[in-house]
Specification:
4-stranded mixed beta sheet; 7-stranded antiparallel beta sheet; 16 strands; alpha+beta; 24% strand; single chain
Length: 319
């Protein structure tokens, strides 16, 4: 009996040992990577670097499609009528710092305002005829013709001539009166919307009519489509305004006014006869005008300064 029990114990030990070995083998097999069903995965040289490159590339693609170039908001469409539609933006530090030296001339809030109720349709039409009358005496060889009634500067070819030298009696007393009336309306509106006393704002150079077309540029003066800041282009500028004299989509195509904002969004204004756009001239209002693709776009730029030494007078009939 003792011999049988000892034999059984020996057999049990062998069985336990065998089971332990089988479990250990199974555990090792689980730890090994399994062979894919359709063969091994392909590998690439420098696979880690390549993977990182793919991740960075994907991020750049996402950024591209969510950047300012891909985002656009129309502030004012040509087909709608807007009444004092405004947008506030943070004033640039250099702009605010400079205006500190002109007491009372710092805006309550930087930004832009668009209105269709300030200048009447008739006034805008009459201003358009005034601009065309002067521009018949010249015209740029490129796509941008300028007429400045204050200095007499008129684009001709690739340079400028003095329109009053070409025709001293170009404008009538009624023309000058109309110009001053419209300019004064804009002056007081700019002062009102930015919270500045009107007598602290002064008309400054350049204030001019413009005609933009799709003709190929012949000189730097014709390249109107580059993004820029008015204060950097014209040192005296503190407040800028534009009066549109004809209609986007009807008289011309392209030529929209585009604010390029820091939130990666382009905000556009579609020109409309009689529409006035006013904005602070600092780098908070980086902007450009789209290339005109057909027709002729007419506008009047009226600029204001807080520096009385940079002030200019209204044009008047020569004595």
């Amino acid at each position: 009996m003792r011999h049988i029990k000892a034999s059984e114990r020996l057999t049990e030990k062998k069985v336990e040992k065998k089971l332990h070995a089988e479990k250990k083998s199974a555990s090792q097999d689980e730890d090994k990577p399994k062979e894919p069903k359709y063969g091994p995965m392909p590998t690439l040289p420098n696979q880690r670097l390549w993977t990182r490159g793919m991740m960075v590339g994907g991020a750049l693609i996402v950024l591209m499609f969510t950047s300012g170039k891909g985002r656009e908001v129309t502030i004012a469409k040509q087909a709608e009528t807007v009444q004092h539609k405004g947008q506030h933006v943070h004033c640039s530090d250099d702009y605010t710092k400079e205006l500190q030296q002109y007491a009372g001339c710092v805006p309550e809030q930087c930004g832009r305002v668009i209105t269709d109720g300030l200048v009447s349709t008739k006034e805008a039409k009459d201003m358009l005829q005034l601009a065309k009358k002067g521009m018949t005496l010249g015209g740029s060889d490129g796509g941008a013709t300028i007429l400045d009634l204050h200095s007499g500067a008129l684009s001709k070819g690739t340079a400028f001539v003095n329109v009053y030298s070409l025709q001293p009696n170009l404008l009538t007393p009624q023309d000058y009166k109309l110009y001053k009336t419209v300019r004064t309306k804009i002056h007081h509106s700019v002062a009102h919307h930015f919270g500045v006393a009107a007598d602290l704002l002064h008309l400054t150079h350049p204030t001019f009519f413009s005609r933009l077309t799709d003709i190929e540029a012949k000189s730097p003066n014709d390249e109107y489509w580059h993004p820029h800041v008015d204060k950097e282009t014209y040192e005296a500028f503190h407040y800028t305004s534009l009066l549109y004299l004809n209609d986007f989509g009807e008289d011309f195509k392209g030529g929209r006014f585009v604010f390029v904002d820091q939130d990666h969004t382009n905000r556009t204004v579609e020109p409309k006869r009689g529409r006035v756009s006013m904005f602070t001239s600092g780098s908070e209002n980086l902007h450009y005008v789209e290339k005109v693709s057909s027709g002729e776009r007419y506008a009047l730029t009226v600029s204001f300064t807080c520096n009385i030494e940079a002030a200019i007078k209204d044009p008047a009939t020569p004595k």
